[in-house]
TrEMBL record:
Name of the protein this chain belongs to: HMG box domain-containing protein
GO terms for cellular component: nucleus
Keyword DNA-binding: yes
Region (Disordered): 33-148
Amino acid sequence: MTVIVSCSRTLSKQLPFRSGVLTRLISTNSTSRVARPQTECTTSQQNGGRSHVFTQPYGSLRGYATTNKPAGRPKAHTGRTPAKRTTKTTTTTANRKPKAKPKAKPKKKAAKPKPKVRKAKKPPSASALKRDAREKRKEVKAKALLDQEPKQLPEQAWQLYVSQRSTKGQQATSAIKSISDGYKNLRPEEREALNHAANENAGKNQAAYKRWVQTFTPVQIKDANTARALLLRSAKADKVKHLARYRSIKDDRSVKRPRNAYSWFLGDRINTGDYKGMTNGEAFKLIGREWSQLPADQKKSYEAKAIADFNRYSAEHKTVYGIDPPQTKRNASAAS
């Protein structure tokens, strides 16, 4: 079969011809060739152009994609030894090693519960401290019975005369001056009437005060006196002028505290009159020196008085307050 392929003059010049026939080198490798029908190519003149006729077999032609690349050169030896291939050995039940049993894990000890750490409390603020102090002071005042005492009538002639003459509209300085001038110019009969009325007021005050005290139990009066002592101490620390309102309540039912041996000795020495014209500090200093130098046989009489007074106090305390008296060190030493 002859195939006529038309091509241009430039292409015909580039194609290799041998004796008027297009030839091409064919590879000697038989594997790269594919059996194809034989074709011939010849040159002829057609349509005023130039044609080439291929007489070479068509099967000898092959493209670039189907051409096997020539084998490369062997790599030069690098001096490394080739890695050995490891062959897997099949294990059978005969040569299989028995698996070791896993060791039992040691039991963990029970963790001891951690002690709870208490958070430190924050210190109270200044406002909280002031609020607590105010509340505590209110409680102490309530126990002291300060606002429940009956009002006292004037017990002196001057006080009674001022209460009768004073008015709200007058100024203080002018009122006092006029009242004092009028009190100086009183007649004797008027003074006698004022003194009589003042004495009656004193009797009324005493009766009203006693009735008021009887409305409370002896234990309440004792607690009130304890509260008043606390208020008096704080008032002195704050330099308060009017301290008369904090005086203790007089109750005939209250138990008189016992006296120790030195107190009995002090009373006897003061009653002798040897310390007239001296201050209390000077007199107490000398009496204390005498007590320290007093022989033991002379102290026994005063110690006996102290023991008898303590027994009296214990019995009265149990009867009036319903409880035993607190055993202080001084009372214990006096009882021994």
